């Protein structure tokens, strides 16, 4: 009889642990589906509820919140996994790029060449992937294709992405205001929340920017739509004016710091 009781104790603990694990898992999945901002707004509410539970005699509620707060670190790591990975990569000083310091005319010229290339390719529905390096060095994050090291001109970029060009597949890389590489392969995102209709060109742009602070411009071959991707987030269907604004804010402001 004692043995039976002992065994049922063991079973109860197992069911108990399984139940808590299941609830934490469902909670993490649910939180992952909400945005980080919503999560940050939720946290103070949970903390206030916890304080109220401490002051009252709501034991079951206290127990639930105790466990929730105990798992908070794990929950935050799951939710912010891409941001944490990117932060670790950025902290590594070996990866930091020496800043290119152009004057205003040089920097303006590069941005305008990029815009002219994007406008031309979007109009002709030529797919393109253009990566602009910022603080974090890209060379360890990409499979390098062909080394080029040339001035950034719209003609060069457009001719690289022409469908019969031998280096049209993959991405071109802009480093220190120069077009340094073409035909580069980028890591694809594993994020299950990326829109299903986005193919590998867009997923490569998202994947790279989850790991570093680069800015990626994507021209869709299918729709001619232009997107900008930063920090794993994609902004789609930008017109030329909007793209100019974004590039000035994200790239030129860094060059001219
Ligand atoms: N890992 C990668 N790194 C860089 N470029 C890639 C990668 N994977 C695919 N590409 C590029 O994307 C092209 C295929 O694009 P695909 O049609 O699958 O994507 P998409 O996001 O639907 O783009 P589009 O809207 O232009 O069709 C390939 O020919 C190649 O040039």
TrEMBL record:
The segment(s) forming the DAC domain are 81-240
SUPFAM superfamilies registered for this protein in UniProt: YojJ-like
- InterPro entries under this entry? C-di-AMP_synthase (IPR014046), CdaA (IPR034701), CdaA_N (IPR045585), DisA (IPR050338), DNA_integrity_DisA_N_sf (IPR036888), DNA_integrity_scan_DisA_N (IPR003390)
Biological-process GO terms, alphabetical? cAMP biosynthetic process
Q: What is its EC number?
A: 2.7.7.85
Which Pfam families does the record associate with it? CdaA_N, DAC
Give the matching NCBIfam families. diadenylate cyclase CdaA (TIGR00159)
> What is the purpose of this protein?
Catalyzes the condensation of 2 ATP molecules into cyclic di-AMP (c-di-AMP), a second messenger used to regulate differing processes in different bacteria.
Its assembly, as annotated, is: Probably a homodimer.
Protein name per the record: Diadenylate cyclase
């Amino acid at each position: 009889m004692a043995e039976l009781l002992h065994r049922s104790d063991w079973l109860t603990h197992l069911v108990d642990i399984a139940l808590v694990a299941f609830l934490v898992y469902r909670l993490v999945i649910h939180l992952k589906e909400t945005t980080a901002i919503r999560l940050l707004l939720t946290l103070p509410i949970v903390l206030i509820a916890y304080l109220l539970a401490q002051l009252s005699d709501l034991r079951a509620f206290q127990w639930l919140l105790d466990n929730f707060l105990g798992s908070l670190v794990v929950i935050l790591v799951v939710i912010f996994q891409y941001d944490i990975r990117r932060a670790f990569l950025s902290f590594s000083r070996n990866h930091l790029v020496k800043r290119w310091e152009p004057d205003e005319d040089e920097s303006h010229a590069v941005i305008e060449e990029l815009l002219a290339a994007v406008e031309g390719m979007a109009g002709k529905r030529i797919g393109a992937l253009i990566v602009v390096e910022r603080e974090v060095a890209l060379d360890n994050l990409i499979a390098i294709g062909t080394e080029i090291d040339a001035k950034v001109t719209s003609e060069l970029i457009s001719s690289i992405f022409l469908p019969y060009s031998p280096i049209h597949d993959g991405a071109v890389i802009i480093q220190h205001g120069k077009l340094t590489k073409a035909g580069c392969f980028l890591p694809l995102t594993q994020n299950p929340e990326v829109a299903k209709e986005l193919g590998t060109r867009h997923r490569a742009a998202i994947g790279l920017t989850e790991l570093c602070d680069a800015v990626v411009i994507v021209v869709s071959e299918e729709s001619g739509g232009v997107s900008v991707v930063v920090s794993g987030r994609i902004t789609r269907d930008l017109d030329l004016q909007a793209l100019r604004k974004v590039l000035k804010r994200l790239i030129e402001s860094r060059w001219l710091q």
